[in-house]
Design goal:
The chain has 427 residues and is mainly α. It has two domains: 148 residues, no CATH class; 205 residues, no CATH class. It is 49% helix and 0% strand. It has 19 helices and no strands. The longest helix is centred in the middle third of the chain and has 26 residues. The radius of gyration is 23 Å and the shape is globular. The N and C termini lie far apart (52 Å).
């Protein structure tokens, strides 16, 4: 074991960190040794599987994120946007590569590695050489040295949603989407599990040892924190766009607001009961994550439901009628979202409440709350999670397949059909 530890220290040697300097990103090759994370198969000697690099490189879509920029579709998107290419454009590299600052790039760093280990786990300069040496070096020690606490749903949500939702300089704006960039979709618990088991291979194992070291993963907490983080990031995009331009980028609005057949009126369900519906002629903000949070608050019989509805409605109305108040309304919505998420996160979800949440989603769909594909996707992923929590997901497999078949084509999305299928998913 001493010989193994010495070899790992040699492989993972790092430079001294100067005070105030960003932690260097040492590159995925620093993790790729067969005695670190590059084993061809899972090993039993350590708490981790030690084949994480192999799984990432062969099965994880993140590994190919940069290569996507070299493909024909990306070249066409760049041409339409008037860019020389996609693989050097800052707006593309912001999410398709581990785009570390030049000063923070170690000798093995390569931008072509795509979304590598340190994109999510943080620059490894201060923790790579010692992070394996448990119990002498604890997880808390690694966190103090710059490791990102991805086991915390709030931290993981912020890390993932930065690209999968957007925020700051990472924004799939209307120009990108008009040029061919796909619309962004994200739900933390669903996407965490899809990533963890990419290609049918485990990136990490959720076992008793993992729970002891990093805490048990709770699906409802993951879902709630993901919804709250996505809502806040969407708010930040709305606030920034109304502040920095006379006309906000159309990317902050629901695509369905404009992109629908003019011969077909918007399906409003039974008696137009959707309290968050935009007024006739108004563009609706992207609000799928927030709508799901409202329904969870309703199922928990939380007083936060009404406060959340009011804050969402106020932001929607400000975006259409009072643009100078958008920043204030976005900040208020952030405050309410934090309050509601904190309450729901600590809530003990009984089986009856999980069932009530299922019915809340079905009733909301019947009332027209999911009029487009984007909002409906959030409802569908939430329903799968709720059914899994009730151990009913296998029993409902046929209805779930139908539910997602309705979501395949945004142009052909039918809200009434979606509501009918959703209503069949009951305990």
């Amino acid at each position: 074991m001493k010989r193994l530890m010495s070899a790992m220290l040699a492989l993972c040697s790092v430079a001294t960190v100067w005070a105030g300097a960003p932690d260097k990103h040492l590159g995925v090759a620093s993790c790729a040794s067969s005695i670190c994370h590059g084993s061809a198969r899972p090993l039993a000697a350590q708490a981790v599987l030690q084949n994480e690099y192999t799984v990432w490189s062969q099965f994880d879509p993140h590994a190919g994120a940069y290569k996507v920029l070299l493909g024909a579709k990306s070249k066409e998107i760049a041409r339409r946007m008037g860019l020389p290419n996609a693989h050097e454009a800052p707006a593309c590299l912001a999410c398709h590569a581990e785009n570390a600052p030049v000063a923070a790039r170690g000798p093995k760093y390569q931008v072509g590695d795509g979304i590598g280990c340190e994109t999510c786990h943080g620059g490894s300069e201060r923790w790579l050489a010692t992070h394996y040496a448990t119990p002498k070096v604890t997880h808390a020690d690694n966190l103090a040295n710059g490791l990102t606490a991805l086991e915390d749903p709030k931290v993981r949500a912020a890390t993932c949603a930065g690209c999968h939702v957007g925020g700051g300089d990472r924004f799939a704006n209307h120009k990108m989407m008009a040029a061919g960039h796909p619309r962004l979709v994200f739900e933390l618990d669903t996407y965490t599990e899809l990533w963890r088991t990419s290609g049918g291979r485990e990136h990490f194992r959720r076992d008793a040892d993992y729970a002891r070291r990093k805490g048990a993963s709770v699906a409802m907490t993951n879902w709630i924190d993901g919804l709250a983080t996505a809502t806040r990031l969407q708010n930040s995009l709305v606030a920034a766009n109304f502040k920095n331009a006379p006309i906000p980028d159309f990317g902050v609005y629901a695509c369905y607001s404009c992109h629908r057949d003019l011969k077909v009126t918007q399906w409003q369900g039974e008696g137009r009961r959707d309290p968050l519906a935009a007024r006739t002629g108004e563009l609706r903000l992207q609000d799928g994550h927030a709508r799901a949070l409202v329904l969870l608050a309703r199922a928990a019989k939380s007083s936060g439901e009404q406060r959340l509805v009011v804050a969402l409605r106020n932001l929607q109305e400000a975006s259409a009628q009072r643009p100078t108040t958008v920043q204030a309304n976005a900040a208020e919505l952030d405050r309410v979202v934090d309050q509601v998420a904190t309450e729901l996160r600590s809530h003990a979800w009984s089986r009856a409440e999980l069932s009530r949440a299922l019915e809340a989603f079905a009733a909301a769909a019947r009332g027209g709350a999911f009029p487009d594909q984007a909002a409906a996707e959030q409802a569908a992923m939430g329903m799968v999670l709720l059914l899994a929590e009730l151990d009913l997901d296998r029993k409902a497999r046929g209805d779930l397949d139908q539910l997602f078949s309705v979501l395949k084509d945004g142009d052909a999305f039918d809200g009434a059909r979606f509501a009918r299928v959703l209503s069949r998913l009951k305990p």
